[in-house]
Amino acid sequence: MTEQHAAGPGKTSAPKKPRRMARPAADPVGHNNPPEPIDGDDKVRVSIRFGDEPEIDVTETLPKMAEQLRAVNGQSDDRLRLLIERIERLEEERKGIADDIKDVFGEAKATGYDVKTMRRVLRLRKMNPDDRREAEAILETYCRNLGMPCQGSLF
Questions:
Q1: Is the CB of residue 45 less than 8 Å from the CB of residue 57?
Q2: Which pLDDT belongs to residue 11?
Q3: Where are the domains of the chain?
Q4: Is residue 46 packed enough to be buried (19+ CB in 10 Å), middle (13-18) or exposed (0-12)?
Q5: Residue 116: CA count within 13 A, CB half-sphere
Q6: Which of 2, 58, 61, 115 pairs with 136 at a CA distance of 20 to 30 A?
Q7: Of all residues in the chain, what percent carry a pLDDT higher than 70?
Q8: Which of 61, 32, 29 is nearest to 45 (CA)?
Q9: What pLDDT does 70 receive?
Q10: What is the pTM of this model?
């Protein structure tokens, strides 16, 4: 029995079998070979090879590189922590400002102002005058097409 696959409409093909990767018996490059111990020492000799290039002994270089990486990671960890703390402080400030704005709107409402209209006025004041005129013209066109009275204002 055949199943339809992505071969195209009306075309059938046999179900695909999962590919198996062959594992080499011996790795000529040395990726799968364990490192060789250095004579009479706890250290391990490490060498790398790129393609057909000769092996490069990095035994002495690795500790220096590890030390440099620790220093860089330590600096980046401190910098990351400082950045996160700055963002947290700014978020706290933003929350405080949002609470202040809410209080001002509450005060305006208690005085008798329409908060919804105040928000519209704030939105209009943020707009570019040309953009505001364009939005008013579009609104007037829509109102006229719907047979609604419109005074050319976004209210």
A1: yes
A2: 58
A3: 44-113, 114-146
A4: middle
A5: 2
A6: 115
A7: 57
A8: 61
A9: 72
A10: 0.45
Instruction: Please state, in angstroms and rounded to a whole number, the distance separating the CA atoms of residues 54 and 154.
Output: 75
The amino acid at residue 45 is: R
CA distance 18 to 12: 18
pLDDT of residue 96: 96
d(CA 48, CA 24): 19
Residues 6+ apart with CB under 8 A from 3: 12, 13, 14, 15
pLDDT, the chain, mean: 75
Which one-letter amino acid corresponds to residue 63?
P
Tell me the backbone φ, ψ of residue 59, rounded to 5 degrees.
Answer: -60, -45
Tell me the angle at which helices 61-111 and 115-126 cross, rounded to the nearest 10 degrees.
130
pLDDT tens digits, 94-113: 999 999 999 999 999 999 99
Helix, coil or strand: residue 80: helix
Task: Over range 10-35, report the average pLDDT.
Answer: 54
The residue with tokens 């590890």 is 66
Which residue is associated with the tokens 């790129």?
50
Residue 144: both structure tokens together: 């006229």
What stretches of 3-155 adopt beta strand conformation (E)?
Answer: 36-37, 44-45, 47-48, 56-57
